[in-house]
């Protein structure tokens, strides 16, 4: 099996997302981290490179220099992984794409839809070289849910309910860091941080696109500069309706991402905190719980049934698909640049609707 050399921008040891990506890289078994610009502070970047065993000449203090140097090397990186704060996603991605290096980028793609659209116009020819880290589309049973919808197991979709609930920002003194700074994390707050995940999940599994929404956007902790809770009604293509609730102040919730789809024939439910099972319910009162890895499940797994898969395996599945992409093979389930732009369209529409007391607002992408 080919091993692809990769570089990471941001994500020094101890940074949550950097550590997660490195574990997922290792779990996939198809990548080797050989270069990095792991901090915007030069001395910290060099120390982080040493801690990860990177060669000194491939430990960079400047990401623009890294893009130029790696593109010039015969053994340069095949993929740039961006795990920086949100405000630098686009300039870093632009530097590497312009240098001919594909990118896997954390979400959201940008701070605003206008920025994302300009970027997408500039890199139209490289849209398939840009992967967005919508992690939850990598869960085996999320992909199985998508397959069941496409196979007609639910019939025509009528209603989509999705929620993503956390409580880690529930106190006024919660350390949200740059995520609570609109200049660095964006004006969307929880909408950009985790709402984009819920939005992408709903569209990914249902196969439908949200066309308009009505939002109540709140700052439930006094003094916040960005939203920490939002409740939205959604209108999808094919006359489907739905709702989305996203909160980082929902007391008692760790990472409560849940998706429910209701069709003419059946309803389906998936919960991220119990990710190995899908529940399919019908009007005759029966509910079938299908376990990942079972003989009825056509979506491949890393592990046999009864051996739990979770967040890291979902990330590793995105990386395995990315390895296929780098090798010139098909990877149709990978979220690409267009998904990143749609995420910013969702955030913009929600903020505009919330500012107009929930007025129905069309999504622009």
From TrEMBL:
<protein>
    <submittedName>
        <fullName>Oxidoreductase</fullName>
    </submittedName>
</protein>
<dbReference type="InterPro" id="IPR000683">
    <property type="entry name" value="Gfo/Idh/MocA-like_OxRdtase_N"/>
</dbReference>
<dbReference type="InterPro" id="IPR036291">
    <property type="entry name" value="NAD(P)-bd_dom_sf"/>
</dbReference>
<dbReference type="GO" id="GO:0000166">
    <property type="term" value="F:nucleotide binding"/>
</dbReference>
<dbReference type="InterPro" id="IPR055170">
    <property type="entry name" value="GFO_IDH_MocA-like_dom"/>
</dbReference>
<feature type="domain" description="GFO/IDH/MocA-like oxidoreductase">
    <location>
        <begin position="142"/>
        <end position="268"/>
    </location>
</feature>
<dbReference type="InterPro" id="IPR051317">
    <property type="entry name" value="Gfo/Idh/MocA_oxidoreduct"/>
</dbReference>
<dbReference type="Pfam" id="PF01408">
    <property type="entry name" value="GFO_IDH_MocA"/>
</dbReference>
<feature type="domain" description="Gfo/Idh/MocA-like oxidoreductase N-terminal">
    <location>
        <begin position="6"/>
        <end position="126"/>
    </location>
</feature>
<dbReference type="Pfam" id="PF22725">
    <property type="entry name" value="GFO_IDH_MocA_C3"/>
</dbReference>
